[in-house]
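[09:14] KT: can someone run the structure on this one? pasting the chain below
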Amino acid sequence: MIYALMVLVMAMVTITFLCLMIRDKDKTIRELTDKLMSRNYTEYVSMTKAMEDPPPEIPSRKPLSWYDDPNIPDVDGDSS
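[09:31] RB: done, structure tokens below
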């Protein structure tokens, strides 16, 4: 009984270790594919930086009436 439990624990540890190795290899393959698909190093750096940084918020002005669209960006700069 104890022997079967030890074998089961060793199998679980082995499977966990293999899953972690596969995940790390997939991450490396994904990074190398991104680097290969970019035209030059500048494009690669900008592509990886764009993945890390959230997109900037677009300020929108308050609607003046019910007819105004609230999603119109503020063009002239005043925040009234």
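[09:33] KT: thanks! The chain has a mean pLDDT of 78.
[09:34] RB: yep, looked fine to me
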